[in-house]
Structure formats: structure tokens, C-alpha cells
Amino acid sequence: MQAPQVPPKVIMITYLVACNIEFVAMSDFIVLALDLSQEECQMPTRQTRPLKACGIAGREGYTLFPVLGSKSRVRIARIALLSSLRHCLWAWCLACLYGAAAPVRAEERPIGIILAAGDIATCSTDPVRNGTATASLVMREIEKARASYPDVEVRVIALGDLAYDRGSAGSVACFDKSWGQFRDRILPVPGNHDYEFDGKASAYFSYFNSTFAALNANEKIGTYALDFPSTGSSRWRLIALNSNTSTGAQSPQARWLESELQAARGRCVIAFSHAFFYSSGFHGHKDAQDVGQPLAPLEVMRPLFTTLYNYRTSVFLAGHDHHYEQLGRAGPNAKPDDLGLSAVAVDGVRSFVVGTGGKALYQKDYKKKWAFTEAYDLRSFGILKIELHPTSYSWEFLPTVPSSSMVIVKQMNSDICNLAN
User: Fold this and answer.
1) Which DSSP string do the residues of 379-399 spell out, in sequence order?
2) Helix (H, G, I), strand (E, B) or coil at 222
């Protein structure tokens, strides 16, 4: 069959509703989510060859096919469907091998707005280092939302290491001078530096005492979950984790997280903690000084991230590494030797590292980055803005100073959410 001409970077699909086919476009692949058994998935298909039968990151029922064609051509891949697909005979799927997947266009009016950053304030007089610069950005976005969408709720997620250097009462007072002006909007999680002064993060817990009471948070470790926005029929579930306490698979926190995610079935979910699971930065290379060192997931977060993935969490926010990084959908089983390509998953968790609140940045540019890294900025302080919609979301990193230091690997600034499974 002659391949038809199509413009570059255009993806065309035929979505056959009657056959229950979900289509997800990736840069070099088409992915068909089919209701097939393991035996059926392993059967050969014409004009395609499965890269991993019935599996993206081990998920049963998914088959990954390469698209045959050149940069400006597509070939029609005819996928024979079996009787389990309600007696449908064929699905015709077209995709363009050139360029990135077509982005999801989110609805224009958000139902809620999140502003996020971690690694924030020292007691410096420098407006960047004491958190004033990012606090000004937060206030600007709050005022902008108030003018454009007066009834849209805005919350500020503070991703830990809020009060450098050791989380003392004096350090928290310096945080309060900059970020305290919107204290009633803050959804906090503690970082390792917030625990340093006395090992209990006492100043952190004291400062946010009324916040935790309103959120019905765990009194010992400060974990909590809430619906956002607080009113309306379409609400996301936000889940705050503490990466400084036990995170093992059988820990109380892990069991609580699983129960929260079970209760959130059919919802869009964002989870956040100070520590990430994936990062291409300093801590994501085991604090190596050599820029050629291999990547490594943060093992302490593996049990929690695995649970987030198993229950189809949409987004995971973190700080800890002092840079900005946007990482595409992935499961928990990334291998450093393939830069995590094996972990790419159509129903994976999208991650953001936003350790850009004010503390000195880690500007070491490591040679190895995760295969699903979509963008990163090693030189800008700033905040992440996420606009939530009923079943989708869009985002933008807002630097304190206009900059050209953002490296775009794959142009993505919106996505549909996973509905918690």
C-alpha cells in the first residue's frame, strides 16, 4: 500500500469507538490499549511488530507498535482484532513518525490553580535567597487569577526544605517574612533540612499547626489528603507525603497512601513530597561530582512511587534537587543502562522537580538524563503553575527573571489525567 503524504509533525488517527480502542500518541510509536489476552497479544500482526507483547512497563493489555514510515510519510498499520474486541474486524491507525506527539489542548477556564516550589528560604538579605523573588511570583499569579477567574481557587504547594539551613524557629521566621503573606493558601510538606535542627521538624509543625488542623493531617508526620477545588462536582484529589519518615512498602504511610488511592478511584490525583523518585540532577546521580556518572532513582521513594503508579496517579511533584525538570509519564522500573526507556508508560506518572524556590541552584549539567525528561532548567529560580481542568491539566514554569536557559527536549505543556484505578 502506498503511504499517503502528510505534513510533518501532524498525527492522524482513526478512533474506532465500537472496538473499545484507546489511542495514545508518543514520539516514535502508536500505542493501542486493547482488551486482549496474553496469547492474543503475542500473535503476529501485519505491517507491525510488537516491541513488547502486551506490555508497557508490564501492564497487561497494552501492546507497543513502531510506526513504519519516513519523516513526512505515514503507513497505515492494519491491526487484526480478535473476537474479544466485540467481533470488530479491523482498526486503522495512522501516525506520523516525525516529531513529538500532538499535545492535549486543555479547556480554557481552569477549575483550580496550583503554584508550587520547594527549597525556598534562607535568612539572607538577597531577595532571591530569602524567598522574596518567588513569593512575588506567587502573589502575582494569585492576583492574576483573582482578576481573570475570581471564583477559581488557588493553592500554593510548598515542596519542603522551606527554612534553611536547619529548620530552626529562626529559619522558619525568615520563611514567614517572604512566603508568610499567603500562608493560608500553603499546602506544605517537610524536607530533610526542616528536620535538621532537632530531628523532629518542631518549628515546621508549630508554624503550620492551624493548617494541619484544618486539613485533618496526621499529627506525627503531617501527611494529608484533600479535594481540590474545595467545592464543585469535578475535583482532583491532592495527597501530601512525608519523605523523611518511613516510606517502606509496609510502613504506616504506605498503607495510608494505598487506602487514600483506593478511595480516589475514578479521580484525577496529584501527589507531592519533598523527595523525588526520578531526577536528572545532583541527587538523581547519587550526589556524584563526575558529570558522567549514571542516573539512579531515589530508592527511599520507590515503594510510594510504585503505589502511585499502580493506582494511576497523574502527577507527582517534588523538590530536593535544586533545579527544574519536567519528566513524562513513567512507571517505577527505570533502568540506568537504558536511561529509563523501559519505564516509559502510557498510563505512567508524570513528575516535576521544582527545587527552585530560592536556595542556591545545583547547576552541574550531568551528561545522562532520563529518556522521559521533557524539559529542564538548571539556572532559573521560579515556580511551577498548574491549571487543573475536570480531566486534564496544563502547566508552565515561571522564572523569577526572564531567561533562555530552559532546555526543551519534548514540547509538552498539557496532558489528560489518569483516572485513579
Assistant:
1) S--EEEEEEE-SSEEEEEEEE
2) coil
CA–CA separation, 346 and 242 (whole Å): 27
Which phi and psi angles does 24 have, rounded to 5°? -130, 125
Tell me the pTM.
0.78
The answer to whether 157 and 116 have CB atoms below 8 angstroms apart is: yes
Beta strands (DSSP E) in 76-230 are 77-80, 90-93, 112-117, 153-159, 186-189, 224-228
Q: In this structure, are residues 202 and 172 in contact, taking their beta carbons and an 8 Å threshold?
A: no
pLDDT digits (tens, 9 = 90+) for 174-203: 999 999 999 999 999 999 999 999 999 999
Q: Are 145 and 113 in contact (CB under 8 A)?
A: yes
Q: Among candidates 169, 197, 188, which has minimal Cα distance to 119?
A: 188
**Distance separating alpha carbons of residues 67 and 77, to the nearest angstrom:** 8
Element at 354 (helix H, strand E): strand 349-354
- Give the strands of the sheet with 349-354, arranged side by side: 224-228, 236-240, 269-272, 315-318, 349-354, 324-330, 373-377, 407-408
The answer to whether 281 and 321 have CB atoms below 8 angstroms apart is yes
CA 293/CA 208 separation, integer angstroms: 39
pLDDT band at 233; cut points 50, 70, 90: confident
